[in-house]
Amino acid sequence: MSNIGSYEEMRETFTWEISEKELGFKKGDNINIGYYCSDRICEMGKADRLALIWQGHSGEVKKYTFDDMRVYTNTIAHYLKGLGIEAGDRICLFMDKVPELYFGFLGILKMGGIAQPLFSAFGGESLFTRLKDANTKAIVTQKKHVSKVRKIKEELPELQYIIVVDDDGKKPLREQEIAFDMEGAEKIETFDIYPSMAETPSVLHYTSGTTGQPKGAQHVHYSLISQYISSKYVLDLMEDDIYWCTADPGWVTGTSYGIIGPWANGVTQCVLDAGFKAESWYKFIQDHRITIWYSAPTAIRSLMKVGTDVVKQYDMSSLRHMCSVGEPLNAEAVIWSKDAFGMEFYDTFWQTETGAHMICNYPGMKVKPGSMGKPFPGITATVLDLKTHEPIQTPGTVGLIAFKPGWPSMFRSYWNNEAVYKSKFINGWYISGDRASIDEDGYYWFVGRDDDVINTGGHLVGPFEIESALLEHESVAESAVVGKPDPVNMEVVKAFITLKPGFDASKMLELEIMNFIRKKLSPLAMPQEIEFADSLPKTRSGKIMRRLLRAKEWGEEIGDTSTLEDDE
Ligand code: PRX
Fold first, then answer.
1. 20-76: per-residue pLDDT in tens?
2. Atom of ligand 1 at shortest distance to CA of 372?
3. pLDDT of residue 563
4. Residue pair 318/229 in contact by the 8 Å Cβ criterion
């Protein structure tokens, strides 16, 4: 029997109070995610249960109980407070998936700080824009990443502390850099947890849009109410589960469902701090007897490519439920998973901004392969007419996915950008930026983005950020960046470039520019292909028509370009 039971019945009767009650929360109480994920689980008599089974890239394994986690998160919170970091300050986590990242996240929340996790593969420029925007006060990192911080810190006057969690003393630390050894530090048994309230800011997740630089979606401690109950109903987490979320906490899946939701449910989580390899993933599931697995379509398609024979060489019998998020999960992948694992991947749809699951497939509910499922109980969803923004009544008609504001984990603003935040709401609906249709049974079918954001391997990258970085290369005069179809990653970045006089297109130059972007921004943002052009298509007002370039890549009808010009 699943946690949710009958979806239809739950949808009828559900209120968010169910989650509040289970968590022992009443309106006006303090609510601190750090407390709920560690101290509370210990108070419930589960102090000795494993919270984290961590495996590094060379195969070493470390295990931590909920009590270990309680003490380490106290220790980090105490340390940060001792430095003079205050409630409301932004503290960036810039690390690989090491235990300090997970405990650091909760430690920051325990002392009232705002956690700002960033993907450790980010290059200097990606890091800089996000730290500058958030006026970040401290960054917690590893020695292998510290050089990227050194290069930009002069231009970040607000950044006071660079905390290195694995300093071995071999190379001297520089000004503002301090070593902190989580396991070697004096253990703090009791810590006075910051008395955060429902609306106290908790996490700042940067996400890309079509225009401008990435924006920080700001969440609050009350998000726990959504994350806890959806982990229970959608991921079906139960008392004895061993759960693996493959996402990096630099992205929202890695925090909402790689930290908060599962640990608030007192469930053991596994973390693999190593790159993707089908064999090592299967071995990881086999060795740790993983029961619930949350992954993404790109990973699933990569596993498909390796073939079913490889799966069959491992013991996957511990698995009982599998979910997917981040991009469209194609019907073939759902059907393949049934053959390979004896069960299907359940697709889930949500966003950085929504903080938790919005449209999902639930255990026990019939899966229609290729559909994202139905709205989470407690969520009012619809698709809006593309022009009038009124809910569409006719099944099968494509519109904008929209949600009625008010669910607990909804973002509360974009950091320093109230205007863009406001622009996300029309006619009383939150507009997701995605298109879908709803069928006669109420299932949602994803169609695509409603903007120019590129989804590569489940990660959103903004064309503007890449175009701006390209212009910093000495040879580039103009640039336009679009998503190009890719069988595994769904989309990859393709750049169109015109060159400055004196530069000639060549394979060498293409590679040089690709590398330039990889280092500056990230491997994900790096164009997989660069097309040198004599000129780029523009509107009458001189704006580059990305959509026209994109349509060509997708083999879509471009039609009358004058309408495109009008759209700009
Ligand atoms: O376009 C949708 C796509 O990913 C976007 C959200 O990305 P992000 O904020 O980075 O959060 C990703 C993890 C929650 C959406 O606007 N997306 C997410 N899930 C799906 C999806 N597209 C199709 N199917 C999904 N299940």
1. 999 999 999 999 999 999 999 999 999 999 999 999 999 999 999 999 999 999 999
2. 26
3. 47
4. no
> Does 236 contact ligand 1 (Cβ within 6 A)?
no
Superfamily of structural domain 7-436: ANL, N-terminal domain (3.40.50.12780)
Q: Model's pTM, two decimal places?
A: 0.94
Cβ count within 10 A of residue 423: 12
Asked whether 208 lines ligand 1 (CB < 6 A), one says no
Chain segment 275-296, per-residue pLDDT in tens: 999 999 999 999 999 999 999 9
- Cα 449 to ligand 1 centroid, rounded to whole Å: 9
Q: Is the CB of 327 under 6 A from ligand 1?
A: yes
Do 492 and 459 meet the contact criterion of CB atoms below 8 Å apart?
Answer: no
Q: How far is the CA of 380 from the centre of ligand 1 (A)?
A: 18
User: What is the pLDDT averaged over residues 192-203?
Assistant: 98
Q: For 454-554, CATH number?
A: 3.30.300.30
DSSP state of 256: I
Point out the ligand 1 atom lying closest to the alpha carbon of residue 433: 16
Q: What is the pLDDT of residue 568?
A: 37
Q: Is the dihedral of CA 472, 476, 481, 485 positive or negative?
A: negative
